[in-house]
Amino acid sequence: MVTRVMDAPGEQPLPSEDYLAENGLYCGDARALLTRVRPNSVSVSIWSPPYFVGKSYEKDLSFDDWQKLLETVIALHFPVIKPGGFLVINIADILAFPDPTMPRVQADNVSTKKCPISRGQVLAAKNEHPDLNRYQLAKLLGCSEQTVQRRMEHNNVRGGKYATQTRVKLVGGLIEAWTIAAGFYPYDRRAWVKDPCWENSQWHSLSYRSVDEFEYIYVFWKPGITCVDRSRLTQQEWSEWGSRGVWYFPSVRSHAVHEAEFPVELPKRVIRLLSAPNDLILDCFVGIGTTAVAAIKEGRRYMGFDLTPEYIAEARRRCFKVQLGLLDDARP
Ligand SMILES: C[S@@+](CC[C@H](N)C(=O)[O-])C[C@H]1O[C@@H](n2cnc3c(N)ncnc32)[C@H](O)[C@@H]1O
């Protein structure tokens, strides 16, 4: 017999056996699976989405697709989060976003130029002395003949100045707009200081921009009664991180199985701060199961989704090992 569950007024309820079972990791699109989470059941949903930085699992997304994905996922969270519960999003601003429509304004990088003679100077000298050959122009300018040739033929350009420009996209405003439209209220935000990411060193050395070394943790609240229990953390934990706006812990440096997993410490802190034992914790971009591992270790129920079958397989393996107490966080 099909039991009907009436949890969300005005919404067509699913037969109860169609809701996903708790303590499960599911392979599929978050947008489809979120419609199968029992309404008002999740205390904290914590996730880190694709960042639109060219990882393999997001390579087919346009910027519009990416925005639509996040906007839809956020809207689908509102019915499933408990009144008084939280949606927590870990994300960084998008720094590496090639945008061909941007003006190509980047300056010459004078510190990497071997010879300070510019193309403009060579052309001016050639204009003034049209009869001089390259060797004579070089003598006049006090540089090598090779420099004269390179400047005249444009083959010494080192990328930056003429390459497609990189757009900086501040994502906080987008996330705020989408969460408010869904019915949530901004509640808190923290900065997670990880370690400098030198991978984008060209970005760093061809401009005055900083190296990327922190991300945000945005917290949104669904209106309702929120239990504030100061005994969830020790006095030391409150003063070291519970009440602090900036969190310091390293990111995961080896990406043997996943390109962009976060460390267990991140969901662990969020779970300890914002949920009680046995609460249900959701991660709809669960990757290799880091949030589920943290939930198990903190005595919470969990549910996780990911589009990539290999990640879900690894997530299940990790959770199994942690449940058996075989490994601390069961990283490969
Ligand atoms: C930043 S990673 C999350 C990593 C995870 N926090 C961990 O520690 O393993 C984003 C994940 O979203 C998944 N993903 C991308 N699009 C998705 C979608 N539409 N539905 C579900 N998962 C998706 C990717 O496969 C990837 O594992």
Short description:
With 332 residues, this protein is an alpha/beta fold. 32% of the residues lie in helices and 19% in strands.
Helix content: 25-40%
The bound ligands are: S-adenosylmethionine
Distance between the termini: 43 Å
> How many domains in all?
2
Q: Tell me the CATH architecture of the largest domain.
A: 3-Layer(aba) Sandwich
Question: Main β-sheet, in a few words?
Answer: 8 strands, mixed
Order of helices and strands: EHEHEEHHHEHEHEHEHEHEH
CATH class of the largest domain: Alpha Beta
Describe, in plain words, how this protein is organized in 3D.
This protein is an alpha/beta fold. It folds into two domains: 16-99 and 168-323, 3-Layer(aba) Sandwich (Rossmann fold); 110-153. 32% of the residues lie in helices and 19% in strands. The strands form two sheets. It has an eight-stranded mixed beta sheet, sandwiched between helices. The chain is elongated, with a radius of gyration of 26 Å. The model is unreliable at 1-10 and 156-160 (pLDDT under 50). Bound molecules: S-adenosylmethionine (SAM). S-adenosylmethionine binds next to strand 10.
